[in-house]
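Exercise 7. Given the encoded structure of a 203-residue chain, write a plausible sequence.
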């Protein structure tokens, strides 16, 4: 199942209120591309993010025929570097028009100074190593707390949380990680029980 990577295209004519809304909606890992102009610098400063100046985003009086495609290549290069972060593009209205014609040809342009585009991407891969380590930690915690609470409580809570996250957009990978961790913790617990039954003096 595919979801989308957000590309936020912000006009250099955007006011403080529009920029503030963009700032509130993007993550700390967002990458900001900007035209190396005074207007672009103003918007970037209001966004509060470090910018990556791109000369190609600078306004031109007579654009080349392939300018839209070259703009698209620049944005997609930064997007593909990390498919799970937001990308913000700050440019003048004419440059934005050319960019959106190629980047999102099937999307109607927004009436305001901010346009959001979604680039299809695959689901975030599940970090199996971290899930396995989390499972071992979960099993150890459950055994350490067994004198206070039943040993099945922590795995049960993790299972519920995992099932809930499976249906949350953009958090499916985290739900899968939790369920894998629960499975690993059950395996570790069974091995521990089997070992204590075989060598009762060891526990």
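Solution.
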């Amino acid at each position: 199942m595919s979801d989308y990577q957000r590309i936020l295209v912000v006009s250099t004519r955007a006011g403080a209120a529009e920029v503030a809304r963009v700032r509130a909606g993007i993550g700390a890992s967002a990458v900001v591309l900007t035209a190396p102009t005074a207007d672009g610098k103003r918007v970037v400063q209001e966004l509060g993010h470090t910018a990556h100046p791109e000369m190609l985003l600078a306004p031109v009086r007579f654009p080349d025929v392939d300018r839209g495609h070259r703009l698209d290549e620049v944005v997609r290069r930064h997007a593909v570097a990390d498919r799970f972060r937001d990308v913000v593009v700050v440019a003048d209205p004419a440059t934005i028009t050319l960019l959106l014609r190629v980047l999102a040809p099937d999307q109607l342009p927004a009436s305001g100074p901010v346009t959001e585009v979604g680039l299809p991407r695959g689901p975030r891969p599940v970090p199996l190593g971290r899930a396995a380590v989390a499972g071992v930690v979960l099993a150890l915690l459950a055994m350490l707390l067994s004198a206070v609470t039943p040993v099945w409580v922590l795995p049960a809570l993790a299972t519920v949380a995992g099932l809930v996250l499976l249906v949350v957009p953009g958090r499916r990978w985290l739900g899968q990680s939790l369920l894998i961790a629960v499975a690993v913790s059950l395996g570790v617990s069974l091995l521990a029980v089997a070992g204590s039954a075989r060598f009762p003096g060891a526990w």
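Remark. The longest helix spans residues 172-198. Students should compare their own answers with the one above.
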